[in-house]
Amino acid sequence: MELCVIGLGYIGLPTAIMFAKHNIHVHGVDVNQDVINSLTSGRIHIVEPGLQNMLDDVMLTKSLSFGVKPKFADAFIISVPTPIRKDKRANLDYVIAATKSIVPFLKKGDLVVLESTVPPRTVEDIMLPILGKTGLEIGEDLFVSHSPERVLPGRLLEELVNNDRIVGGINELSSSKTADLYKTFVKGTIHLTNATTAEMVKLMENTYRDVNIAFANEMAKIAEQVGFNVWEAIELANCHPRVNIHRPGPGVGGHCIAVDPWFIYEAAPASAELIHKSRILNDSMPEYIVTKLNRLLEGFDQPTIAIMGLAFKGNIDDMRESPAVEIIEKLQSNYNVTLFDPHVKENVEGKMDTIEKAVENADVIVVLTDHNEFKGINPVVLFDSMKGDLVVDTRNVLDSDLWINAGFKVHSLGKSSVTTDQLTVEYSK
Questions:
Q1: Is 202 among the residues known to form the active site?
Q2: What is the 3-state secondary structure (H, E, C) of the chain?
Q3: Per-residue confidence (pLDDT) for residue 343, from 0 to 100
Q4: Whose CB among 106, 191, 246, 390 lies 3.0–4.6 Å from 212's, allowing a Cys bridge?
Q5: Domain map of the chain by residue range?
Q6: 285-412 shares the fold of 2-194
Q7: Fold that domain 2-194 belongs to in CATH
Q8: Which residues contact 299 (CB under 8 A, 6 or more apart)?
Q9: Is 221 a catalytic residue?
Q10: Looking at the DSSP assignment, which residues form a beta bridge with residue 144?
Q11: Strands across the sheet with 409-412, in order?
């Protein structure tokens, strides 16, 4: 069988390599020539545990090729970005371009699968009219489905295989052919539905998490006003067998949770009230952190802020929609800012290659990403090289007692410095 995968990013590349690993001849396509050059020479351009080793294995079998244009195949998987526009509407330009690019290579009996996360009815209203230009009878000669990815960066190869898969075809035959394709390596249950329902399932999964995080962030703000430790409160609340509150933070990043709820809101803005309010709250968190820093640094003379973490979540290199990026941009207009992230290799203004260089002569350290490396930092080593003694931990990564004993003043998101006595005075007024 011949498979063509369009888009070799965080999902498309692992998918292409996984199929090739399971004896499918795969041609991977990306419009970025640098990406193709790197992969052709055997080097992956993203960070994912185990992916380089798997690529090494399939390159030896010659079951995987790369290029900037599609080739004739039996099945085509489209896995391209669907970013959000400034007006919070989905940008489907890449999906449209990818669909048009395969039209000259489609023949009777072929299967087209969209993996990209999209607003509802994208397959029906956007892709099918383009695919109809082949002259093939859609659903009889050409089969089309949506099968969204649902994997976690850092565990992607394991979850590609073991997670359940949603397959939504434009008809039953499209669904069954798509399921047969993914059975090549998927060990989880493959659930069949229609294309629009499959599109909505992916959006609902990530929107649920976004609403949950918004609740956690709101609790963090309340904790700072009322006087309790939100992290401890969430941990205790989650001891209830039917409660699973997520963790607060400086904002929501990544292509999924920060973007997908807007696709639902775009489709039904009058009804998606809770979704909209949750998105607004989570989008407000970077400004909330910046305001907190502004208050802490009042009276400082040209202070320097050392940022720890650029990625949107711990132990990955992905900066897409990262709240850290927005926070840094806001801070750079008023402060000297240095950066450190042990996972991000991209050249970013102010980024240092060691944490020691980043914190040298800094007035405050701000933790924005929960990398494992930050948990083991010895604060004593950093204290003497700093000009100030402030630490703002937005991820609850640091051992506060350890840092306080080293001489730092620690301010954490969702942990109030207000004492019980102070609260009594406040309420007695």
A1: yes
A2: CEEEEECCCCCHHHHHHHHHHCCCEEEEECCCHHHHHHHHCCCCCCCCCCHHHHHHHHHHHCCEEEECCCCCCCEEEECCCCCECCCCCECCHHHHHHHHHHHHHCCCCCEEEECCCCCCCHHHHHHHHHHHHHCCCECCCEEEEECCCCCCCCCHHHHHHHCCEEEEECCHHHHHHHHHHHCCCCCCCEEEEEHHHHHHHHHHHHHHHHHHHHHHHHHHHHHHHHCCEHHHHHHHHCCCCCCCCCCCCCCCCCCCCCCHHHHHHHHCCCCCHHHHHHHHHHHCHHHHHHHHHHHHCCCCCCCEEEEECCCCCCCCCCCCCCHHHHHHHHHHCCCEEEEECCCCCCCCCCECCCHHHHHCCCCEEEECCCCHHHHCCCHHHHHCCCCCCEEEECCCCCCHHHHHHCCCEEEECCECCCCHHHHHHHHHC
A3: 92
A4: 246
A5: 2-194, 285-412
A6: yes
A7: Rossmann fold (3.40.50)
A8: none
A9: no
A10: 112
A11: 336-340, 304-308, 364-367, 390-393, 409-412
The residue written with tokens 């607003």 in the block is 119
Catalytic residue, candidates 4, 256, 313, 415: 256
- 424: tokens are 């009594």
Q: Tell me the pLDDT of the chain averaged across its residues.
A: 94
In the chain, the amino acid numbered 215 is: F
User: With pLDDT > 70 as the criterion, what percentage of the chain qualifies?
Assistant: 97
- pLDDT, tens digit (0-9, with 9 covering 90-100), for 343-381: 998 888 899 999 999 999 999 999 999 999 999 899 998
- The single residue listed with the structure tokens 């209830």 is 240
Q: Residues with Cβ < 8 Å from 422, sequence gap 6 or more?
A: 227
Dig out the tokens for 422 from the structure. Answer: 């102070």
What is 285-412's CATH topology?
Rossmann fold (3.40.50)
Tokens of 317: 């290199």
Tokens coding 126: 């956007």
**Which residue is associated with the tokens 């087209």?**
112
Give the dihedral of Cα atoms 179, 180, 181, 185; nearest 10 deg: 90
Residue 422 has pLDDT above 90, yes or no: no
Who's near 228: CB < 8 A, 6+ residues apart? 416
Q: Which of 202, 313, 330, 415 is catalytic?
A: 202
